[in-house]
Structures are given as C-alpha cells and as structure tokens.
Amino acid sequence: MAWTGFSIEMKLLAVDIGTGTQDIVLFDTQLDIENSFKLILPSPTMRIFRKIKQATHDRVDILLSGYLMGGGPSTWAVKDHIRAGLKVYATLSAGCTFDDDPEMVRGMGVIVISEDELTSLPAQVRRIHMCDFDYEEISRVFVDFGADLNDLAAIAVGVFDHGNAPAGVSDRKFRFDYLDMRIRAENRLSAFAYPANQIPAIMTRLQAVAASARNIPAPLVVMDTAAAAILGATYDAKVQMLTHKIVVNIGNLHTLAFRLDETRITGMFEHHTGMLSQEQLERLLIKLAEGTLTNAEIFEQHGHGALVYASDSANLESDNLNLVVTGPRRNKLASSRLNPYLAVPFGDMMITGCIGLLAATADKIPHLSSPIHAGLNNGSETKLAPWEVN
What we know:
31% of the residues lie in helices and 23% in strands. The strands form four sheets. The chain has a six-stranded mixed sheet, sandwiched between helices. It has helices spanning 44-58, 73-83, 92-95, 102-107, 135-144, 171-185, 204-212, 225-233, 278-290, 295-300, 352-364, 369-376; strands at residues 2-3, 8-9, 11-17, 21-28, 37-42, 62-66, 88-91, 111-113, 126-130, 152-159, 193-195, 220-224, 245-250, 254-260, 265-272, 305-308, 322-326, 341-342. By secondary structure, the chain is α/β, with parallel strands linked by helices. A hairpin with an 8-residue loop joins strand 4 (21-28) and strand 5 (37-42). The protein folds into three domains: 9-43 and 138-168 and 190-228 and 349-388, Nucleotidyltransferase, domain 5 (2-Layer Sandwich); 44-130, 3-Layer(aba) Sandwich (Rossmann fold); 237-343, 2-Layer Sandwich (Nucleotidyltransferase, domain 5), CATH 3.30.420.
C-alpha cells in the first residue's frame, strides 16, 4: 500500500453471492464509494441452473464436479433433469451442494462418483463445474474494462450457509443454533465473518468458498450474506441516525430480521421468504419489537427460529422503534402500515451486502480497519476523481 496526499491507497474486492444475483464492488479508498466499479451479475447457482436446463433440453447426461456451492435453483434443475430420464453424475464435493449427506444425494437419483472415475465417463456426458466464487472469472471482467485488480488488500465473499447438520438434526434448527451461538459469543454483526483460516468446520459452504479461493492474490474473509446485508444497511446515512431499530433483509429465499440498539443485537428471527405474506411478516416484526416472539412460533411455521436477548418492549407502530428494510424482495413490505424505511447505503440497495462485507473485513483484519472505516464514512479528506487514480 502506498501513502498519497489524500489517503492510504488500498483496494478491496467485495462479492455478495445470493440466489438471484452476485453483487460485486471494487472498493478503492481514494474514491468515494459512489465512484466504485460495480457489477450486478447472475448468481452462480442461477448460471448452473441454466446450464443444466440446457442439457435437459439437449437430452444429454451431465457430470457435476468442483465444489459444494449454493443450491436452490441448481437443485431444482437437477431434479428436473433426473425426472426427464437423464443421468446426473456428481463428485462427492459437488454433490454435497444438494445435501451434506451423500446418501441423501444418492436418494435424489444422483450418481455419486469418485475423482478417479471421472475419466471413465462417456465423452458425450456434459461437464459442469460447480463453484460459488470464481476469482479468475470475475477478474477477467474487470480487466476487460481496464480495471486493475493487482495489489488487493483483501477479498471478502458472502454466501448463505445452513451448515453441516448431524444426522437426525433439522437443518433449520442447526443453522439457528449456530446463529445463537455466534451472537452469544460475540454480540455484533461481524461475528458472522471469518478470515479464511478461522472458518468453523461445520460451515461447509464457507469452507468450500475458501477451498476454491486458495490461489487468490489477497487475504480472504467470508461471511454469512444475510448478516452482511443487515450490517451494510446500517451504513445508510439515515439509518446511522437511528439508535433503536429493526433491520430486515428480505432475500429471495430467506428473510432475516435483527433488532438492534446502539451497541447490541437484542433479538432476531429467520424465516423462508416464500412462506411469508406481508401480513404475516408484519405480525412477526411487531412481536419481535415487543419481545414476545418465540422460537417455537417460527419453527412450527417451518422457519428457522427466533431469539429475544432483551426483555424491553417497543412499538413498531409508534415513533420509539424504526423499521429498516433491504433485500431483493423488499417490496414485500414497501406498502406496509409499519412505515418501513427502504435503506439505500451510498445510494444503491444492490451493494448493501458488499458494504457489510467491507465493514466486517475492517473488524477481522485489524490493520485494514482505519482506511476501510474512513472510506465507509467518506473520510474527512478530499477524494480523488476516478481519472486521477493510478
């Protein structure tokens, strides 16, 4: 890193990987964030979905190799491919995308094979590489447009990870127990971020991201994408003025809400977005504010769970608690009687998760903290114009 008259010259790459899109920001401490280079691209699982659907249309068998990655659309496409009477081969690592238990993967009709068996498959089997984070592919896009990714100070990647639940344990309960454990251990949103060498063994998707990024040219931080979005929303200028708030990220598949005061997480719940009407979501948010929401209520509705860490009660329908909303499905609450504020940190809702990833990286790599926070707060120094940055 080089010192200039304006600031420490430093770049970080933040990649927030969701179900519908992957949102990418090249953060440069010499620029206002509004001048950052950004990419909003189809998510990796959507790209795999389209490749599998094309193979189904072409009536060809497929081989899935590579790494565990996000499922959802890719899982649905695999099931459709098998129902069409076509074969799906998968290596053990790629097959764990659909379930951490290989027997469950085989139960779907997937033919799980070893790495040694790859060369024995017929040549007409279509090969599809599974991977959440492909640094080489992303860097090529930037390079094609003349953006330099050399000398990155860090790379931060966000994905949603259910974790590897033991046999007989609900994935929903396992993930929520993990969220509870992290909050009790370290009550802040960056608790859900890790340097690559500190990822818990149970978080298999985060581990897979780190494995696929072994050769990247910078330190790696990984984080739960839902928590990253909540953290990023708090960098909206209006939200920063709110002391007590509920921030809810309404994702394509999951909805996660945190109740926050000045310094702490005081409650939370997580549910499946597709199972929630506006009225149901409003009711859950009101009960979270009041402190009356129970874990059993959410779990019995086939959500993940709820936790309340503080007994104080607040009212979302008056002025003593504020509701902040982000996420690709935020319109689910746009017309709500709860009068939500739709967060747009630095004027762009789509990079909310990336902002959270940057903030978490500042916590996890201490020597980067000051320049990152200065950039996120737009610093007190005059920034360069984009054409002035070398």
